C-alpha cells in the first residue's frame, strides 16, 4: 500500500456540480442545497490556523466565480477565474456562514497604486497540499505556501520600471452585497529593513501580523486611501465605520528585472504583534528567505497524515477522490495553540468549527482517529469555550459574539465528549467536562425540554435526549450513579418527538430538510425506535420509500429563479434522501443495519460513491461543509461509519481491496476477499453492481454483527471481509447495540 498524497487535487469542489446523470437508485434522490462544493484550492496546513488563496471576492471562500448560492446551481458573478490579490483565512466548503475572513490581501502589481483592486485573470493554476500558484495576466507568477501560523508569498516579476507588492490591512470579507468585513480598530507600523507589523480588530477579534520582506533595494512605505504616506511610519485608527473606511496598508516598490523574485513572510497571532513575530521566527526564522523551506515542511506534515491512511486497488479516479476527501477532511477546524484572545492561559484554542451539526457525525471521529492528541485538544477547547461563554458552541468562528448557530442544533459537543471519554483520550479533566455538559443541557432549547419533555423545532428533542444519554455515560463512568440515573431518564424522551401512528417525527419546523430527512437518525436506542415504527419490516419499508426504491428519477433544481413546479417546496414533498448534497440525513443509510438489512446499506452507499463524486472541479454534489462530506466519503470508502457518541463503528462493503489506518501507533487493517474493482460513474457512464458482505472476522474471530467498537478500531487489528455479488445472511440476526438491549437483556 502506498501514500496517496500525490493523488490529491485541491481543485475538486471549487466549481458548480458537474457530474454525469445519476443512474439507478441515485437518480431518485433530491438535492435541496446549492450544487457546488464551495471548496478552494489555496495553500492550507493540516488543521492549521492559516490558509492563503487567490482572491476574487466570490462566494463563499473568496476564490472562484459565483454569487451567493444556497439552492440549485450557483449563478456566476464572473465569467473567468480571476484575482485582485491573495488573502488569508478562508472558509472551506461552507454554505451560508454569515461572517467571512480573507484578511491581509497581498497584491503584486506593475501598475500604479490607484489600480489596487483590479481583477486580473488567473492562468496556469497549480495546487497541491500546502501550495498554490498562478500567473496573473500582467505576467507576474504568484505562489503562496503556509505553515501552521505563517504564510509565505513569492512573486516572480516581468521586467518593469516599478514593481510593487501591496499589503492591504483594511480588506476583509467578500466582494458581494453585505459581504465586506470592516476593521473596528487598527494600527500598523513600518519598522524598516523589510519589516512591519500591525493589528486589526475584525468582528471583535484582534488579529496581528508581523511581516518580513525580501525586496532588495525596494522602498518601503505606508499608504492611506491609495496615496503614499512618505516618511510616515505608523497609522492608528481608534474606530472605523463602513462609511468612514478608507483603505490603508503597506507597499514595497522598486524596479524589477525580468525573472526577479520577491518573497514576503507573514507570521500571525491572535495575541499581539510580539507573538506574531515569535510565531514567524519559530516556524521559519527571521532574516532569511524561506518559501521553499515552508513549502517542504508543510508537505512533510501533510505526508505524515497521509502515511496513516493507505489503500490498495481502486481506479485512478476513485483514488483521486478518496485522497482529496482525506485532504479536505483535515483543513478545518483551525487549531491555534496558545492563541485564544478570550482567555490568557496557554493551551489549545480551536476555531472554524463552522458546521458542528455536520462534522460531529463524521469529521471529528476521523480527526480523533488520525490525531488523538488533536482530538483531545479540540474537546478541551470546547470545554474552555463553554466555561468562558456559558454554552458549548454549535458553531465557532474567529469572531466574537452570540451568533453561534444555536438554531441548527443542541448539545452536539456532548457526542464528541462521550466518544473521547469512552476512548480514554488523555489530558481531559472529565469531572470538569461533566459539570459543563450537565449545565449546557439546561440552556437555550434545553430549558423548554426540562419543563415539557419535548421542544420544537422537534429535532432539538432528539439532540437533547442524545445529549442526556452521552452525559449519562460519563457520569456513570465517574461513579455518579444518581446523576447518571437522572440523565438516563431524560434521555428516553427522544420518543416524544415521534408520532406512533406514522413512525415519523412530529410535524414541526426543520432546518434544511423535512421530517423524513431527520426521522432516520441513529439514536442511542434504535431497537426501541424500530419498534415504535412498527417493527423491522415496517421500518425497512419506510426506509425503502425514503431512499427511492421503485421510484421514478427526479429532476433537480436548476438555476434560480426556479420555474413553477421546480421549487424547494415541491422537492421536499418527495420525502426523499438528500443524497449527500446535504448532510442532515447522511447517517440514514446505516439505519438498515439496525433492522437486519445491511445489504440495503451496501446498495445505497455504493450508489452514492459511484454517482455523486468525480475527480473534477465540479466533482462534489454539494457543500463540503468544513470537511463533513469528505469525511463521510473517507469512512464509507473504508467500509466503516462512526456512530458518534456511542463508541461504535458500523461495518459495510469497502470500496478498496485493502486499506489500513494507523491510529495512535496501532494499525487497523481492512482486508477483503472477492473484491471487484468498481469504477465511478464519471469514468464509464455505466453502473457497476454493488458488492455485499458474505462474512467477516475481526482478529480471526467471526464478526456476526455488522459493527465493531471504537475502542477496537483505535486499538488496531485485522478486519477481514468476504464480498460477493448477492446479499447474504451476514449481520441479519445480530444487530448493533441499543440502550434497551442492556435494559431488557
Features:
22% strand, eight-stranded antiparallel beta sheet, alpha+beta, Beta-galactosidase, Chain A, domain 5, 745 residues, Glutathione S-transferase Yfyf (Class Pi), Chain A, domain 2, ten-stranded antiparallel beta sheet
CATH architecture of the domain at 33-288: Distorted Sandwich
| Rg on CA atoms, Å | 26 Å
**What order do the strands of the largest sheet run in, or round the barrel if closed?**
3-6-7-8-9-18-13-12-11-16
Catalogue the unreliable spans: none
Question: What is the mean predicted local confidence, pLDDT?
Answer: 95
Strand content: 15-25%
Distance between the termini: 43 Å
Task: Write up what this structure looks like.
The chain has 745 residues and is an alpha+beta fold. The strands form 5 sheets. A 10-stranded antiparallel β-sheet has the order 3-6-7-8-9-18-13-12-11-16. The protein has an 8-stranded antiparallel β-sheet with strand order 1-2-4-5-10-17-14-15, with no helix packed on it. Strands 19-24-25-29-26-27 form a 6-stranded mixed β-sheet. Strand 14 and strand 15 (227-229) form a beta hairpin. The chain is globular, with a radius of gyration of 26 Å.
Amino acid at each position: 500500500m502506498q501514500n496517496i498524497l500525490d493523488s490529491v487535487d485541491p481543485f475538486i469542489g471549487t466549481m458548480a456540480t458537474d457530474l454525469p446523470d445519476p443512474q439507478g437508485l441515485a437518480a431518485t434522490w433530491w438535492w435541496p442545497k446549492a450544487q457546488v462544493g464551495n471548496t478552494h484550492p489555496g495553500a492550507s496546513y493540516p488543521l492549521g490556523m492559516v490558509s492563503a488563496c487567490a482572491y476574487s471576492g466570490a462566494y463563499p471562500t473568496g476564490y472562484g466565480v459565483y454569487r451567493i448560492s444556497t439552492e440549485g446551481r450557483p449563478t456566476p458573478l464572473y465569467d473567468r477565474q480571476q484575482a485582485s490579490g491573495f488573502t488569508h483565512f478562508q472558509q472551506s466548503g461552507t454554505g451560508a456562514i454569515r461572517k467571512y475572513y480573507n484578511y491581509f490581501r497581498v497584491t503584486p502589481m506593475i501598475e500604479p497604486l490607484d489600480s489596487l483592486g483590479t481583477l486580473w485573470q488567473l492562468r496556469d493554476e497549480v495546487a497541491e497540499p500546502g501550495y498554490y500558484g498562478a500567473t496573473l495576466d500582467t505576467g507576474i507568477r504568484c505562489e503562496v505556501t503556509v505553515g501552521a501560523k505563517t504564510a509565505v508569498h513569492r512573486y516572480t516579476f516581468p521586467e518593469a520600471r516599478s514593481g510593487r507588492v501591496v499589503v492591504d490591512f483594511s480588506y476583509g470579507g467578500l466582494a458581494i452585497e453585505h459581504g465586506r468585513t470592516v476593521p473596528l480598530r487598527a494600527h500598523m507600523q513600518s519598522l524598516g529593513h523589510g519589516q512591519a507589523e500591525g493589528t486589526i480588530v475584525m468582528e471583535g477579534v484582534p488579529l496581528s501580523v508581523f511581516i518580513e520582506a525580501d525586496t532588495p533595494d525596494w522602498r518601503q512605505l505606508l499608504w492611506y486611501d491609495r496615496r503614499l504616506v512618505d516618511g510616515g511610519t505608523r497609522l492608528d485608527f481608534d474606530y472605523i465605520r463602513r462609511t468612514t473606511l478608507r483603505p490603508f496598508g503597506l507597499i514595497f516598490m522598486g524596479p524589477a528585472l525580468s525573472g526577479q523574485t520577491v518573497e514576503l513572510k507573514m507570521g500571525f497571532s491572535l495575541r499581539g504583534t510580539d507573538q506574531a513575530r515569535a510565531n514567524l521566527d519559530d516556524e521559519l526564522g527571521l532574516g532569511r528567505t524561506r518559501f521553499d523551506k515552508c513549502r517542504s515542511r508543510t508537505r512533510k506534515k501533510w505526508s505524515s497524515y497521509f502515511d496513516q491512511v493507505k489503500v490498495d486497488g481502486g481506479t485512478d479516479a476513485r483514488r483521486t477522490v478518496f485522497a482529496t476527501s482525506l485532504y479536505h477532511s483535515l483543513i478545518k477546524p483551525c487549531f491555534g495553540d496558545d492563541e485564544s484572545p478570550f482567555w490568557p492561559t496557554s493551551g489549545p484554542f480551536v476555531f472554524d468549527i463552522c458546521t458542528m451539526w455536520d462534522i460531529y457525525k463524521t469529521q471529528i471521529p476521523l480527526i480523533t482517529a488520525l490525531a488523538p492528541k488533536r482530538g483531545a485538544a479540540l474537546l478541551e477547547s470546547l470545554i474552555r469555550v463553554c466555561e468562558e461563554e456559558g454554552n458549548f458552541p454549535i458553531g465557532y468562528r474567529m469572531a466574537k459574539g452570540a451568533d453561534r448557530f444555536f438554531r441548527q442544533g443542541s448539545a452536539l459537543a456532548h457526542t464528541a465528549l462521550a466518544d473521547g471519554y469512552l476512548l480514554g483520550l488523555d489530558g481531559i479533566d472529565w469531572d470538569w467536562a461533566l459539570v459543563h455538559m450537565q449545565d449546557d443541557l439546561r440552556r437555550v432549547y434545553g430549558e423548554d425540554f426540562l419543563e415539557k419533555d419535548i421542544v420544537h423545532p422537534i429535532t432539538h428533542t432528539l439532540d437533547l435526549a442524545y445529549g442526556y444519554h452521552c452525559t449519562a455515560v460519563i457520569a456513570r463512568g465517574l461513579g455518579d450513579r444518581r446523576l447518571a440515573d437522572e440523565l438516563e431518564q431524560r434521555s428516553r424522551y427522544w420518543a416524544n418527538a415521534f408520532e406512533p401512528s406514522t413512525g415519523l417525527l412530529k410535524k414541526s419546523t426543520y432546518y434544511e430538510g423535512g421530517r423524513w430527512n431527520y426521522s432516520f437518525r441513529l439514536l442511542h436506542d434504535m431497537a426501541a425506535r424500530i419498534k415504535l415504527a412498527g417493527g423491522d419490516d415496517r421500518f425497512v419499508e419506510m426506509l425503502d420509500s425514503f431512499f427511492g426504491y421503485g421510484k421514478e428519477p427526479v429532476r433537480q433544481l436548476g438555476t434560480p429563479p426556479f420555474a413553477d413546479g421546480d421549487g424547494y417546496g415541491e422537492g421536499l414533498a418527495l420525502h426523499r434522501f438528500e443524497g449527500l448534497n446535504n448532510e442532515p440525513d447522511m447517517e440514514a443509510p446505516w439505519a438498515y443495519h439496525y433492522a437486519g438489512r445491511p445489504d440495503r446499506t451496501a446498495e445505497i452507499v455504493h450508489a452514492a460513491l459511484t454517482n455523486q463524486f468525480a475527480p473534477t472541479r465540479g466533482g462534489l454534489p454539494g457543500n463540503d461543509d468544513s470537511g463533513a462530506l469528505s469525511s463521510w466519503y473517507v469512512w464509507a470508502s473504508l467500509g466503516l461509519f462512526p456512530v458518534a457518541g456511542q463508541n461504535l463503528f458500523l461495518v459495510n462493503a469497502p470500496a478498496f481491496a485493502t486499506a489500513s489506518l494507523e491510529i495512535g501507533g496501532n494499525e487497523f487493517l481492512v482486508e477483503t476477499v472477492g473484491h471487484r474493482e468498481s469504477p465511478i460513474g464519471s469514468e464509464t457512464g455505466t453502473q457497476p453492481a454493488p458488492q455485499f458482505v458474505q462474512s467477516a472476522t475481526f482478529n480471526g474471530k467471526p464478526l456476526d454483527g455488522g459493527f465493531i467498537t471504537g475502542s477496537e478500531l483505535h486499538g488496531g487489528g485485522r478486519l477481514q471481509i468476504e464480498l460477493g455479488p448477492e446479499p447474504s445472511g451476514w449481520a441479519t440476526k445480530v444487530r448493533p447495540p441499543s440502550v434497551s438491549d442492556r435494559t431488557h437483556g
